[in-house]
Amino acid sequence: MLRAKRLLLDKAKQMQNQFADFLEIPQDALLDLPRITIIGDLRLFLENHRGIIEYTSEKIRVSVSGGQLEITGQNLALKNIKPDEIAVEGRIDTLAFNR
After folding, report:
1. What is residue 90's predicted lDDT score, i.e. its pLDDT?
2. DSSP readout, 49-89?
């Protein structure tokens, strides 16, 4: 049952991708995918997030479609928090996408 559900979800995502390509719509807008913009190792902008899970000056974990984004570094600070967008400042060392 679980496998059939997974196959159905994968097929739906494939159809959404084809639809986005056909209409020339950015996939992040249609599929609610996270959009990450990094400026050097000092600033990160994340759009289409689903909430902050963990926040310290050395690690920030954010829920995104399909999993979590983990940002590690030093002196990390959330500078801008909106319902669909956040900005992180500090020295960014790593980014990891975890399912």
Report:
1. 97
2. EEEEEEE-SSEEEEEETTEEEEEEEEEEEEEEEETTEEEEE
